[in-house]
Design goal:
With 173 residues, this protein is mostly helical. Helices cover 84% and strands 0% of the residues. It is built from six helices and no strands.
Length: 173
């Protein structure tokens, strides 16, 4: 229960930052003070290379947070149990009673997994939200495309490339 209260608080703070970004110049100006010369300078030098490097750093931070702020052994065990249940579900798909039982077990495992996998969010969510708001400001002022697409789409494409590679290299469950 404590976990859920903390998560809700983090989401409320994140939502407040997003919706009140322009109403609180101190937060906005502080973020711009830090990111304009660093990430902004990198983007101004070479947008494509800079964006890819920043996304690589984002992926690395997220992956390291997942690795070091989660119980990797417990996650591995829970994922193995999930796989076994999925295999059993395939075997017993004609038996509604057994399917319901296995689905219930699967749901229980999901509820055990969620707090473990959400823990890194405590540490990464707010800095990433602030950075995303900065991205929005930067690309509003500089309406250019990254790799021929909107910056948000480019973000998702690049993250989808880097994340699995980094998880495999760093052995993250």
């Amino acid at each position: 229960m404590k976990f859920m209260k903390i998560m809700i608080l983090i989401y409320i703070i994140g939502a407040a930052v997003v919706f009140l970004w322009n109403q609180f110049p101190l937060v906005k100006d502080s973020v711009h003070f830090v990111l304009d010369p660093s990430i902004g300078g990198l983007f101004d030098w070479n947008l494509t290379i800079g964006f890819i490097l920043v996304m690589l750093i984002f992926s690395l931070i997220t992956t390291l947070a997942q690795k070091y702020f989660t119980d990797q052994d417990a996650l591995k065990t829970l994922k193995e149990e999930q796989k076994l249940i999925q295999q059993e579900l395939k075997l017993y798909r004609q038996d509604p009673k057994k399917t319901a039982e296995l689905t219930s077990k699967s749901f229980e495992l999901t509820m055990k997994t969620m707090p473990l996998t959400m823990r890194p969010t405590f540490y990464t969510m707010l800095p990433f939200i602030l950075t995303f708001k900065w991205f929005s400001d930067y690309f509003t002022a500089n309406p250019v495309k990254v790799l021929g697409m909107h910056w948000l789409l480019a973000y998702f494409v690049i993250i989808l490339v880097f994340s699995p590679i980094l998880k495999k290299v760093l052995k993250v469950n």
